[in-house]
Amino acid sequence: MSAEIIDGKAFAEAFRGRLAVQVAAFAAAAKRAPGLAVVLVGEDPASAVYVRSKGKATRAAGMESFEHRLPATVAQDELLALVDRLNADPAVDGILVQLPLPGHIDERVVITRIDPDKDVDGFHPVNAGRLATGLEGFVPCTPLGCLMLLKDRLGDLAGLDAVVIGRSNIVGKPMAQLLLGESCTVTIAHSKTRDLSSVVRRADIVVAAVGRPRMIKGEWIKPGATVIDVGINRTEDGLVGDVDFAGAASVAGAITPVPGGVGPMTIAVLLRNTLVSAHRRASVPYEKGSL
Ligand SMILES: Nc1nc(=O)c2c([nH]1)NC[C@@H]1CN(c3ccc(C(=O)N[C@@H](CCC(=O)O)C(=O)O)cc3)C=[N+]21
């Protein structure tokens, strides 16, 4: 058996096309475009690439992109002052401070300074709490993108066994919350989990977000399972995921590739969250479920 390859790149492109139509409708109603501010501290080349592709995608969807570049040596207070200005700027619906930040800056302090209602990354503890308690807020882009791919393939997820490998605040924990919200039976596995292969073998849905190249082996996968690979690891053989793709693709029912799977969904959901924020802030109603 050979798995269906879930084409996240094509899905994200189609989704961004639908978003552009909804952005135009928002702009006509609100007399302004949705605005996303991206803050990049330092010159990390990989981060600079992401920030550039976010800016391109933002403009292509008809939104305004405000890019702020600060030197790696910037004082934390100066970064916080920029966040304060963006919080107060009516043209800014979404604020993203690219992580990681230089060592002398406390990421938690910066993230908690962002207005939770502009926190389109969904990283603010208020948004984590809203997700955990079922309140409206912002959900982190990568796990929400993974959920969109899962629902597109599987429809109703209720009752399915889901295993999330990784417990980060950015992917693992919110992914588990989302799957729980869909009435999956959710297991969160991590580096201290005993007998990981047996835990993975139970799962109808496997989400791998550990950041270790090809750690999840094909023999661990239940035949027919859906495998979502969040890992982006730069290795000597190029970009690889957390899942041994060749091994898993021979047993899974469907699997996301790296690249071209989850990554493009992250940016598409960032635009989606920004448009949702714009609607809420401008009190322009939108159809729930259409975004
Ligand atoms: N506050 C914050 N929010 C983020 O969302 C955030 C961040 N900081 N810091 C960096 C990571 C990384 N990230 C990616 C987004 C898209 C791709 C993506 O589209 N990847 C392509 C491949 C790109 C390549 O070739 O490198 C793919 O998987 O097909 C990857 C990684 C968002 N991040």
From TrEMBL:
It catalyses: (6R)-5,10-methenyltetrahydrofolate + H2O = (6R)-10-formyltetrahydrofolate + H(+); (6R)-5,10-methylene-5,6,7,8-tetrahydrofolate + NADP(+) = (6R)-5,10-methenyltetrahydrofolate + NADPH. Pathway: One-carbon metabolism; tetrahydrofolate interconversion. GO terms for biological process: L-histidine biosynthetic process; methionine biosynthetic process; purine nucleotide biosynthetic process; tetrahydrofolate interconversion. Coiled coil: none annotated. Residues 140-280 form the Tetrahydrofolate dehydrogenase/cyclohydrolase NAD(P)-binding domain. NADP(+) binds at G166, R167, S168, I232. Pfam families: THF_DHG_CYH, THF_DHG_CYH_C. Its EC number is 1.5.1.5, 3.5.4.9. One of its GO terms (molecular function) is methylenetetrahydrofolate dehydrogenase (NADP+) activity. Gene3D superfamilies: Leucine Dehydrogenase, chain A, domain 1, NAD(P)-binding Rossmann-like Domain. Residues 6-121 form the Tetrahydrofolate dehydrogenase/cyclohydrolase catalytic domain. Keywords: Amino-acid biosynthesis, Histidine biosynthesis, Hydrolase, Methionine biosynthesis, Multifunctional enzyme, NADP, One-carbon metabolism, Oxidoreductase, Purine biosynthesis. One of its GO terms (cellular component) is cytosol. PANTHER family: C-1-TETRAHYDROFOLATE SYNTHASE, CYTOPLASMIC (PTHR48099:SF5), C-1-TETRAHYDROFOLATE SYNTHASE, CYTOPLASMIC-RELATED (PTHR48099). Homodimer. Belongs to the tetrahydrofolate dehydrogenase/cyclohydrolase family. Catalyzes the oxidation of 5,10-methylenetetrahydrofolate to 5,10-methenyltetrahydrofolate and then the hydrolysis of 5,10-methenyltetrahydrofolate to 10-formyltetrahydrofolate. This is Bifunctional protein FolD. It comes from Sphingomonas alpina. The gene is folD.
